[in-house]
Inverse folding.
């Protein structure tokens, strides 16, 4: 074994092989097929006839330790302790005894966790940190997601949509959630430039680092009362928050002007049509806690208009491509504005044409 392989480190992701349930280890790369046997339950069959059932429950993502203990106890009781958390905040229980499926679902439901999210459903929303954890956020994340899923709960459980809908929420343009490639994506946006605190900045930030952090060169050095600070060219700034990430003396949160934009039509899958980025549907909705009614209404409108008009198997983007964007705006009632036009000439003159800036 090489020196490098012998090295012990806690850096990076642990080897997932160590944590696979025995039946998955045994059948690794040798699964024959899988099928949905009921909403939220998949049957996986190995080449040798082994059967594994995965039972998917939605979670709100932010979980108390008490909740996690409850999940662990259920896993001990029904599936030898084996479960996993998916990237979309579902919990999947790996059940090998078919008789355990119904009691497990019953207990999950009694704890308030729905089972579903497979096939033609609205999957659990992948989302970011929001006000609770991230300094750059233009909106809360979990609160908006909770308000949306409370309204669209039935679509998680019942596979009644033309195809699956994958949703994502990011609380700033850094887009930690996978919003660029989701059927419906909500992005919280700042709309005002950072405010420079000339006093603080020289004590807590490195000026060259702050200047270098801006992807569109909008930050310039400046001297105030003989001391170094910076100024922001407001015509260039597109409110990304990168500078605030490296320098706490440049906050850009703004309760009145921050809000939410909605994008539609992205997908990762290359089934039928190639993968696609999502495109702007609504440029701005107010940040209206605690239930964000404008955002909930808009998402519900998209889901229900899609449900009514799409053909079986058609993802949101494929449906819009078929009917055309003018019809999409027509039947959803969303206003088409100047912000929907990708103005390349403006982008060129303001340097806003890098990957940093193109949604
Ligand atoms: Fe923070 Fe932005 Fe990521 Fe939200 S999307 S967690 S605000 S960096
Ligand atoms: Fe530059 Fe973004 Fe800061 Fe604006 S918010 S000054 S674009 S880094």
């Amino acid at each position: 074994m090489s020196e490098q392989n012998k090295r012990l480190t806690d850096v990076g992701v642990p080897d997932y092989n160590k944590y696979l349930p025995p039946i998955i280890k045994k059948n690794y790369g040798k699964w024959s097929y899988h099928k949905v046997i009921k909403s939220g339950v998949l049957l996986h069959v190995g080449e040798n006839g082994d059967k594994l059932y995965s039972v998917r429950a939605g979670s709100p993502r932010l979980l108390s330790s008490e909740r996690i203990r409850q999940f662990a106890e259920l896993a001990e009781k029904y599936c030898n302790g084996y479960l996993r958390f998916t990237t979309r905040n579902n919990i999947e229980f790996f059940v090998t005894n078919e008789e355990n499926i119904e009691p497990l679902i019953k207990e999950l439901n009694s704890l308030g966790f729905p089972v579903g999210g497979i096939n033609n459903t609205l999957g659990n929303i992948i989302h970011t940190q929001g006000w609770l954890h991230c300094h750059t956020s233009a909106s809360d994340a979990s609160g908006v997601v909770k308000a949306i899923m409370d309204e669209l709960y039935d679509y998680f459980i019942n596979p009644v949509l033309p195809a699956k809908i994958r949703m994502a929420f990011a609380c700033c343009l850094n887009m930690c959630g996978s919003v660029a490639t989701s059927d419906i994506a909500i992005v919280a946006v700042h709309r005002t430039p950072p405010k420079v605190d000339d006093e603080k900045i020289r004590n807590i930030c490195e000026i060259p680092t702050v200047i270098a952090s801006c992807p569109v060169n909008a930050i310039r050095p400046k001297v105030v009362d003989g001391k170094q600070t910076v100024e922001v060219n407001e015509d260039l700034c597109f409110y990304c928050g990168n500078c605030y990430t490296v320098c706490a003396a440049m906050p850009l949160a703004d309760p009145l002007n921050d809000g939410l934009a909605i994008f539609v039509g992205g997908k990762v899958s290359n089934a039928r049509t190639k993968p696609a980025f999502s495109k702007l549907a609504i440029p701005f909705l107010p940040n209206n806690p605690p239930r964000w009614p404008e955002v909930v209404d808009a998402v519900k409108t998209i889901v229900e208009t899609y449900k009514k008009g799409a053909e079986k198997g058609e993802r949101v983007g494929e449906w819009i491509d078929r009917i055309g964007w003018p019809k999409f705006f027509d039947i959803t009632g969303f206003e088409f504005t100047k912000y929907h036009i990708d103005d390349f000439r403006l982008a060129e003159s303001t340097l806003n044409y890098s990957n940093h800036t193109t949604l």
